[in-house]
Request: fold
Amino acid sequence: MDTSLTNTINSPMDLSQFSAQELKDALYRIENKKNEERETLTKN
Reply:
């Protein structure tokens, strides 16, 4: 795994720089990705 990515995940993030809509969009994309991965696993 890329260590720079790990550092980003583990360090606290200042979410105040994002608008509420940007945060909602990001959450929506994450949920979609999880659902797609789940569907892929159940199909196999």
